# Entry
Amino acid sequence: MNKNDNIKTYLIALNQIEKIGDRRIYELIKHYESVESIFEEKEKNLKELIEKKFKFKVNDFSKNEILDKAENIIKKSKEYEIGILSLFDKEYPFNLKQIDNPPYILYYKGDLKKLRRNSVSIVGTRNPTKESKKYAFDIASKLSALNITVVSGMAKGIDKEAHLGAISSLVNTAAVLGNGIDIVYPSENVKVYNKLIESGIVISEFEVGRKPDRMNFPRRNRIISGLSYATIMVEASSKSGALITVDYALNQGREVYIAPYDEKLKEYFGNHKLYKEGAKIINDITDILEDFDSIFSNDDDYLKMKLKYFEGGNIPNKGDSEENKIIKTQKIKENNKENKTIRKITENKKIEKPNLEGDEAKLYDIISKNDKVHIDDIIEKTEMKTQVVTSLLMRLEINGFIKQTAGKYYTALL
# Structure
């Protein structure tokens, strides 16, 4: 076993001691000057130090016992093909290492390259409006296309839409879980999870077998914001749990942005609060690129994709003008009125197929009228751009409305 493996084992073992987390591990390492030196100490002396230093009673523990638990966690992780990073590994995410309380151990499954510095987190309520879902999907798709990793928590609602948007465009996305990576939670996100471990990445500070716990989710939010240069709040009421991530971001010295909103709707009271405190409204991806282009440009992959999507590689200087804010906010108000009208009209109708609208409904209608249809025929019939069709098909497939078969043929499932 090499030194790095030893350190990982020791760090995992320390987590097996009651009430010992990352902050207290930091204090112990500082006291003993190395992780290894902690385990050279006698259990009795270590226990006395912990009780004196942290002022709480510790149950008796055996070094051999907690090391055995750590080795068992490592063994199970290997069985699930879960990788383990320690804070001392060179692959450990740079941005996360800079926060006040980084996790000493990260478990991961997927592509470590997705934990690049160029990352933006997208968060919000688990029960978003349709406008917010579309916003999260669209901005995540655009960020991902520029090789910017979209970070979120794989929860229902905004998190899921952000991951779906990134999946639709190069799969530059990372999910931070509040449980062990061997557990998919919520279970409805299994298709998103499978795509993430295939081409994106899933990470957690919790070991295999750790079940979801409501106390874990606020804790994991510091990792979501810590991985990112900026956090975008899409939709939050005044008491939304998603605001915890924003608090972490601000405490970590990271930028916070918000989606356009209707301040009269209670669903956006959290957005309005952040706006009054100085958060910038992101009407379009260029609003965030203007602020971070010089930082993002340190990544060659970002520069290549920027040249592809922007003429000459120059970000249009649109600015966050009051006129843009008014236009976007008015559009959301109009959409809200339109949705209420649609709901009233369809309220008493029997639904015989998925309740889809717009381009999604158009694609589903084409596919459902055939036993199977090739993607080229779909593109020809819709007269949409290939990238748009691909994104919509991915969304429909992950939501369980269609299925892709061999040869890029699609068939309806409902």
